[in-house]
Amino acid sequence: MGLTRIAGGDCGRDDCPAIFTTDKDTVAVQGYVMHRKAPVGEAIVEIPISVLQEAARALRR
Hints:
Blueprint: E1 3-8, E2 18-22, E3 27-30, E4 32-33, E5 45-46, H1 49-60
Antiparallel strand pairs: 1-2, 2-3, 4-5
């Protein structure tokens, strides 16, 4: 799956937290794992509001 970073990133070059678009016309979110149950194969992650706002601006272009 191809990922293109549209918001966030770096964190000492580990690209965290960040939001990406994919080559499948979806959005992928990388963040800090929250310690809460999620369905099998999923995770709940936390990202700063500023990263989400940056992604919204990038998607409007």
